Amino acid sequence: MPRLTVEGFPPVEVESGKRLVLAIEEDAGVDILHACGGNARCTTCRVEFISGEPERMTVAERTVLAAKGVTGVRLSCQSLCDHDMTVRAISRLTGSGRPDAGPKPAPVITPPPEY
Ligand code: FES
């Protein structure tokens, strides 16, 4: 099982292939935002990779990051935790002023991933 480390939190073992946004929220217990429900629209699920950044990027992720002019981050809703990785959760409910983290993302990447 891959090991996920969110900076500042204890490392956890994650079911291989789990959607990263859900692994951060459910396994690591970190209050990451997912305002669009994991659909590659809001970019609030963004993380910085310290190690283990996935090589593949979905077309949806590439498109929304480019449209918003965002660099140096990845969308956790568009990545799978299928190997050891360490991330920095830079977009959390705590301190955001939002009432909640957003709709629960589906267990699989949405929209259906194209690479
Ligand atoms: S882009 Fe909205 S939750 Fe990932």
Concise structural overview:
With 115 residues, this protein is α+β, with helices and mostly antiparallel strands. It has helices at 20-27, 59-68, and strands at 3-6, 12-13, 18-19, 46-51, 74-75, 80-81, 85-89.
Give structural notes.
The protein has two helices and seven strands; from the N terminus they run βββαβαβββ. It is α+β, with helices and mostly antiparallel strands and 115 residues long. The strands form two sheets. It has a five-stranded mixed sheet, covered by helices on one side. Strands 3-6 form a two-stranded antiparallel ribbon. The model has no long low-confidence stretch (mean pLDDT 98). Bound molecules: FE2/S2 (inorganic) cluster. FE2/S2 (inorganic) cluster binds at residues 34-36, 38-45, 75, 77.
